[in-house]
Specification:
Layout (H helix, E strand, L loop, with lengths): L4 H4 E7 H5 L4 E5 L10 H18 L7 E10 L17 E7 L1 H26 L9 H21 E3 L7 E3 L1 E3 L3 E2 L8 E2 L2 H15 L19 H21 L13 H6 L1 H8 L5 H9 L4 H18 E8 L2 H11 L8 H13 L1 H4 L3 H13 L6 H19 L7 H13 L5 H22 L19 H12 L6 H12 L5 H25 L8 H10 L28 H13 L11 H10 L2 H4 L1 H12 L2 E3 L7 E3 L10 H5 L5 E4 L26 E4 L4 H4 L4 H11 L4 H11 L7 H7 L4 H7 L7 H23 L10 E6 L2 E6 L9
Protein name: DUF262 domain-containing protein
Pfam family, one: GmrSD_C
InterPro entries: GmrSD_C, GmrSD_N
């Protein structure tokens, strides 16, 4: 017989009293639930919604304050409760999947009401029952005692025996444990601790003793969540006190006058489920600010909170169904991330009693440490989504969607594959931890933190590695993280010594290959050119042109006939080179230098990607000198003559800001050909890296004046710069001294200043070819390519880790 919907879940709307005062009920927060985190604004909203509903109740007896849906699992077998003393557990445990913030705040409200009503009851009655000759007083006393009893059963249950008979209604995994034995009970979480301490005091104090004024303080070392919880408790208490005394609160409505309660029978029935004594009603009409009035207002508010605040409680069959229900019902709350729901699976697999000291715990702390950088909400959700997308690609080459249900299922299914093997499970969690560490400290370090390769010697973070990481990050080339992560992870966990050194060197080789491939691929396309699919195929080992196995840690589906996963930098270089050089339309289509130059020269690289353009220019300028045979151009110089293709060069935007030589907008003194098409001025041949501070003087000046500035800005000394500027006889927006101070020996600028001829589109294209050749010369060894000048398609052959290119006009595509 097919499963019926009612077997999967049931939903019931319940008042707070019906939910919390259910005999034998225990609410349980599983380990993945976040700490308490409501702010003052949310507590004010809770109070305001309650007050608004109370006001409406005076006009319509069916008014409720509905606070949404709480998703739970009815844990009949107590499988979610850890730690546990099975004979001691409440008879009905509801594990809270969603709604813990609201439930915790409502419990704070009920405890605060109970405490205040006890305080004000003492002021009125002094612990004595009123004389029968005072029927109004007797009625008020009766309503007060009744509401106190109902309130107390909502936040704790008293067992009939044991030396610790007080059970808080709500406890948290790991931190708390229900038990009637004082030696075994444990209530360390902020919410359970607050409820328990107050409940024990209130339960022990007889009515004839002045009650304790409960003002909790955060325990030392308890964490921010306890501090937040106690702040919210204090704010609720202060607000209730003002409301009861009829003192206005700017953000909140006031309580309805006692005269409405006294004169409207339906209002009384809706609040108390019965009519009030007529003598009490007459008295209430006469009260204003007396202690009795304050007490009655608190009783009135408590009655509404218990009987007219409503929640829809959904009980799911199990966790998976409960999360599915949550996703479909949640419209305003912040869902748990896929990592938060994954964490308890790790805990259960490691066994709760062993988890705290396990390596799995350390791995999960590393992931949590990274995610803790983000505020709960969309920032945390996005960070988790991106992290798991990267992890899935690195782990099984899965193109994981960012949808929360899909990510939860992926983490569950892939982890469950390893549950039975301690070694396999440890390797899986280690890889997840490596992902978070690499993303959080290498790819995108925290604000003001230095980029580093955690777990590797400081020497591993070479200047080239820094440069590549900075470029790829600025390019937002997140697809590159997964392959880089594989080499990083292998290096981190390699044995110290030669093996570690080899793996560190492999990481640098890999990042250089990935960077060169990305630059050369993107420089020849208007968009990304579907580059992501190339990386995904490499991770999966699909359609390899070189026979390279998968780079992902595992195959999605084990196949004995397919190559095993491999982390080999030289193999990666060969595969990337083959894909870039292949003439097959699925791949790069750049088989030779001529095709690269033709494609990159024609594109408006400035508008396509500024990080890409800047990287190409820095690569071209590095250790170059002015070309005396071709004024305006540069050529390769000696090593160290003008270094700029470095991490310092990348971050030195003071001297290396992208500027247009011919201005973006047409102005006098420039060849008309630059403006015949809107894209021409954005081509690489018309771009230069120059001090951004000089832009006010460079501006839209004609070429004859602009080249003077280029010569001065690229001068070898400040004195030379001043001579150039003074001899020009030109006036600039900035003083000669200011401009001279900006000078820095930059051969590419000095070369521009040496061109006497007109700056025109033809020379721009000639310059572009020179720059791109220089950049190619800098990057070709990173990828292991040696393109020929020929325009015919070559065959790419790798010999001894080098690339030879032979002419083969009959070849339809590159072979290896």
């Amino acid at each position: 017989m097919p499963t019926q919907a009612k077997e999967i879940f049931e939903a019931q709307s319940k008042s707070l009293r019906e939910l919390l005062s259910d005999n034998g009920l225990g609410l349980y927060l599983p380990p993945y639930q976040r700490p308490y985190g409501w702010g003052k604004d949310k507590v004010e909203k809770l109070l305001d919604d309650t007050l608004h509903g109370l006001k409406n109740l005076g006009e319509a007896s069916d008014s409720f304050t509905f606070l949404g849906t709480v998703i739970t699992i009815h844990d009949v077998n107590h499988v979610t409760v850890q730690p546990i003393l099975k004979p001691e557990v409440p008879s009905k445990v509801l594990t809270v999947i969603d709604g813990q913030q609201r439930l915790s705040s409502l419990l704070l409200l009920l405890v605060s009401l109970h405490n205040l009503i006890r305080q004000h009851s003492w002021k009125v009655f002094k612990g004595k029952t009123p004389d029968s000759t005072d029927p109004a007083g007797v009625a008020l006393y009766s309503e007060t005692v009744s509401i106190l009893q109902t309130l107390s059963t909502a936040f704790y249950e008293r067992k009939n025996f044991g030396d610790a008979p007080i059970y808080p209604r709500l406890i948290r995994a790991f931190a708390d444990q229900w038990s009637k034995d004082a030696k075994l009970k444990l209530y360390e979480s902020p919410i359970a601790n607050l409820i328990y301490i107050y409940s024990v005091k209130a339960d022990a104090e007889p009515p004839t003793v002045k009650p304790t004024d409960f003002r909790p303080k955060a325990r030392s070392g308890a964490g921010e969540s306890e501090s937040d919880l106690i702040k919210r408790f204090s704010e609720i208490r202060a607000a209730l006190t003002k409301l009861a005394q009829r003192k206005p609160i700017e953000e909140l409505e006031g309580l309805p006058p006692l005269s409405i309660l006294a004169t409207q029978i339906e209002f009384q029935r809706a609040l108390f489920n019965h009519e009030l004594d007529p003598k009490l009603c007459t008295w209430l009409c006469e009260l204003e600010d007396e202690p009795e009035a304050v007490l009655m207002r608190l009783v009135l508010f408590a009655a509404y909170a218990l009987n007219r605040i409503a929640l829809t409680v959904v009980q799911g069959k199990d966790e998976d169904y409960a999360f599915t229900i949550f996703e479909s019902l949640n419209t305003t709350g912040e869902p748990l991330t896929a990592f938060e729901t994954f964490l308890p699976r790790v805990v259960m697999a490691e066994r709760v009693q062993d988890y705290r000291g396990s390596s799995a715990h350390e791995r999960m702390k590393a992931v949590q440490s990274y995610l803790d950088r983000f505020d709960v909400g969309e920032k945390l959700q996005n960070a988790t989504r991106e992290l798991l997308v990267t992890f899935a690609l690195a782990e099984t080459a899965k193109k994981l969607s960012k949808r929360l249900p899909d990510q939860r299922v992926y983490m569950k299914d892939t982890f469950d594959r390893h549950r039975e093997s301690d070694d396999d499970r440890a390797a899986y969690l280690r890889h997840l931890s490596d992902t978070a560490t690499f993303v959080g400290t290498t790819w995108e370090p925290a604000k003001d933190a230095t980029r580093q390769l955690v777990g590797l010697p400081t020497s591993a973070m070479t200047d080239t590695v820094k440069l590549c990481l900075a470029f790829l990050k600025d390019l937002n080339h997140t697809i590159a993280i997964a392959p880089l992560l594989r080499f990083y992870s292998e290096a981190v966990h390699a044995e110290e010594g030669e093996e570690r050194d080899r793996r560190v060197a492999e990481f640098e080789t890999a990042i250089k290959a990935i960077t060169a491939f990305t630059v050369l691929w993107r420089a020849t396309r208007r968009g990304t050119g579907n580059i992501d699919s190339q990386y995904r195929a490499i991770m999966a080992g699909d359609s390899s042109l070189t026979g390279m196995g998968p780079l992902a840690r595992q195959r999605a589906v084990p196949d004995q006939d397919e190559p095993e996963p491999m982390v080999d930098a030289e193999a990666l270089k060969k595969e990337l080179a083959a894909r870039l050089s292949s003439t097959d339309k699925k791949y790069g289509g750049i088989p030779n230098l001529a095709s690269f130059l033709a494609a990159a020269t024609a594109l408006p690289l400035y508008t396509i990607s500024r990080p890409l353009t800047r990287f190409l220019l820095l690569a071209a300028y590095h250790d170059t000198i002015e070309d005396p045979d071709h004024p305006g151009l540069i050529k390769q110089g000696k090593v160290g003559v003008a270094p700029c293709f470095t991490s310092d060069g990348w971050f030195d935007e003071t001297h290396f800001t992208i500027e247009h030589i011919a201005p973006q907008q047409e102005t006098g003194g420039w060849h008309k050909g630059f403006y015949s098409e809107k894209e021409i001025v954005h081509k690489i041949g018309n771009l230069v890296l120059a001090p951004g501070a000089a832009n006010a003087s460079l501006s839209s000046r004609p070429w004859t004046e602009k080249k003077v500035l280029y010569a001065a800005l690229g001068a070898t000394t400040t004195g030379e710069a001043e001579i150039i500027l003074n001899e020009s006889g030109l006036t600039f927006a900035q003083s000669t001294q200011e401009l001279a101070q900006m000078s820095h020996y930059l051969p590419h600028l000095r070369a521009l200043g040496q061109r006497d001829a007109e700056w025109d589109p033809a020379f721009m294209d000639q310059r572009a070819a020179v720059l791109l050749r220089l950049a190619y010369a800098r990057l070709k060894d990173w990828l292991g390519i040696a393109w020929s000048e020929s325009t015919t398609d070559p065959v790419v052959r790798h010999v001894d880790d080098e690339v030879e290119l032979d002419e083969d006009e009959d070849s339809a595509e590159n072979t290896v």
